[in-house]
UniProtKB/TrEMBL annotation:
A GO molecular function held by the record: zinc ion binding
Lineage top rank: taxon: Eukaryota
Coiled coil: 90-117
Record has Zinc-finger as a keyword: yes
UniProt keywords, alphabetically: Coiled coil, Metal-binding, Zinc, Zinc-finger
Record's keyword annotation contains Cell membrane: no
Residue ranges constituting the PHD-type domain according to the UniProt record: 21-78
Protein name, entry field: PHD-type domain-containing protein
Length: 325
């Protein structure tokens, strides 16, 4: 650290040493002797004699022979505050750098994952198996999107009807459709559940959660509130138009599947006469659902009347079935 002793011995010439007296900041006494016992603040560069600092000669000798940084009282307070601030800045800088590194890694991974046609075919096949999708249905999705002017894979379309389809695009549409169905698989849409007319949003949400739990209870299913990830009324709130469809995000698909199996319990309650439950379908699935019901209606019109034609099955394998009356 800087003291009168080691400062003077490090100067260039003896003349400069003599012309460089130190003045104690506190007592304002001038010290010209190079053996004078003063400490220099590392920040403000002011000087302080050991008498004003109430330090012993031994303490001075220890400080003058060490690399310890010494600050006067006012500067020490500023330095300590800066240390805390600097630590926060360093931490924030580390977070920013970590984020940048992660983004760079993601970009590098994306570049590495660029693949040729055969690899894309393999990815689509894996997605079909992973999400338990019907392969023919995935091909239908691709075909429907192409015929409707959507972006469909050149690669996928090569495997459909000899590869001749209009408006061929990329495989992205098919994969996005599969992924969107995966994100919706735990969801339900409930129609006909009475909506609370309170203007307080939280009160309306709590009312919906209570009705959902009661619906499951009436279906002989115990549903903890923790298993309801989120509820959402579809459409803009309008006090004059209540009973909007209720979208329910569940944590697992098990409760949802059990509810569909137990819907016959619900039908026995008069209060649920106008209540219907459906899957949360993608746009493509809704269009397919509409097509299937149109087909069922035509079959019903052409039937003698001994059978009913309904659309049944999970979202990934919906079909028209014939049921005897």
């Amino acid at each position: 650290m800087a003291t009168r002793r080691n400062k003077s011995t490090s100067n260039a010439t003896s003349d400069q040493k003599k012309e460089d007296p130190w003045e104690c900041k506190i007592c304002q006494k001038i010290y010209k002797n190079e053996d004078a016992k003063l400490l220099e603040c590392q920040r403000c560069k002011d000087h302080f004699c050991i008498k004003c600092l109430n330090k012993t000669k031994t303490e001075y000798d220890i400080l003058s022979n060490s690399d310890t940084m010494w600050f006067c009282a006012p500067c020490r307070q500023v330095v300590e505050e800066h240390i805390v601030t600097d630590l926060k800045i360093e931490e924030r800088c580390r977070e920013i750098m970590d984020n940048y590194e992660q983004r760079i890694n993601n970009i590098e991974i994306a570049i590495e994952k660029k693949c040729d046609k055969e690899e894309v075919r393999e990815i689509v096949s894996q997605e079909i198996i992973k999400h338990k999708c019907d392969e023919e249905r995935v091909r239908e999705i691709a075909k429907e999107e192409a015929l409707n002017g959507g972006a469909v894979a050149n690669i996928v379309s090569e495997d459909i009807e000899g590869g001749v389809l209009p408006n061929q695009g990329t495989v992205t549409t098919v994969l996005e459709e599969i992924n969107e169905r995966k994100t919706r698989e735990n969801n339900l849409i409930i129609f006909g559940i009475t909506e609370n007319e309170s203007e307080n949003k939280q009160e309306r949400i709590e009312h919906d959660v209570e009705n959902i739990v009661q619906l499951f209870k009436d279906a002989k299913i115990t549903l903890d509130i923790e298993n309801i990830r989120k509820t959402q009324r579809l459409g803009k709130y309008d006090k004059e138009k209540t009973n909007r469809p209720l979208l329910v995000h569940l944590k697992s698909i098990d409760s949802k599947l059990t509810l569909f199996r137990n819907m016959h319990y619900i039908r026995s309650y008069p209060k649920y006469q106008k209540v219907n439950v459906s899957n949360d379908l993608t746009k493509s699935e809704r269009e397919e659902e509409k097509r299937l019901w149109t087909e069922a209606k035509k079959l019903q019109e052409n039937n003698s009347g001994d059978f009913l034609f309904k659309v049944r099955g999970p979202p990934w394998a919906r079909k028209v079935v014939k049921i005897k009356k």
